[in-house]
Amino acid sequence: MNVLVVGGAGYIGSHCVRQLQVAGHTPIVLDNLVKGHKESIPAGVSFHEVDLADSPKVIEILKSEDIDIVMHFAAFIEVGESMQDPLKHYENNVAKTISLLKSMREAGVNKFVFSSSCTVLGEEAEPPFNETMPLRPISAYGQTKADVEVILDYCTKAYGMSAAIFRYFNASGAAEGGIIGEDHSPETHLIPIAIQVALGQREKMMVFGNDYPTPDGTCLRDYVHVDDLSRAHIAAFPLLEEKGRLLTYNLGTGTPASVLEIIKTVEEVSGRPVPYDLAPKRAGDVPSAYADSAKAKSELGWTPQYGTIRSIIETAWAWHQSHPRGYEDA
Ligand code: UFG
Fold first, then answer.
1. CA 174 to CA 322: how far, in whole Å?
2. Is this model's pTM higher than 0.85 or not?
3. Pocket-testing residue among 73, 189, 201, 214, ligand 1, by greatest number of atoms within 8 A of Cβ
4. Is 139 found in the same domain as 243?
């Protein structure tokens, strides 16, 4: 399959590009490089530096590259920013996705894979989260993902296109070999921040809240390896052959880890201390979020290959150790 990877120079997109190659597909990267890193694109992969708002160009690429499937990873992901500047997130995450879907219709491409987030389920959901729970996001970011999920429901019914929605829990880790990895600016995620402390780039970190109703009082999250996420997406391709299909899957290991467990594991893997201070709770954090991925397991035959938090953190550590300044060191 010729697969257009929109946001293919970003964290999850770049890992998916590699996994597409492993599976024998031909990835073609489209990225405006606002967040993505050109250095993450493998040599020999066709790359188009284009914004999704440039519909004539997107249509031309869809046709000239003979695209079979579009995978859409390009989104702004910072929850705090989405509350301060919601229009920025709606424009990028919703309006540009609509532009992409219209371009696909124009070019006659009707298979779509979309990056969503467990955050569409909101704070009332009780873990483990399955796919039958209602959409109740509590941030503008989460709402943009939920909006696209609803748009895809209508589009699959109206236009005969088929789509797979994947809701990630906490995407983490890096490809084996330490060539590509996580490089966000600003970095807000727990594992890379703990690793930055281990590397001496930060003096210490903050633990946001320690009186949650969890075993050690810190939040529980479901950290899932970025290559495992990519493999689930690719496993859905055959199911998209049927027109009008809408598939939704929650992707996680189902085994949560607490903030303190993550810090301890980073200390063990790196062999270095990770000092922290206790800080007030971060707005919008739920005590516990982890996946029921039984549907992905039964329908896609998907099982995460990285089953332990240590195995995930080892890959993240290898990347950050060899690229302490991210892609500046590539
Ligand atoms: N945390 C800290 N200190 C830090 C950073 C995080 O204690 O310096 C805690 C958070 O409070 C939370 C846990 O670590 O309890 C995980 O936080 P992350 O920011 O790594 O991840 P989230 O669960 O908040 O975010 C996840 C994804 C985001 C996505 C969000 C909503 O990683 O990309 O869900 O979908 F935007």
1. 12
2. yes
3. 189
4. yes
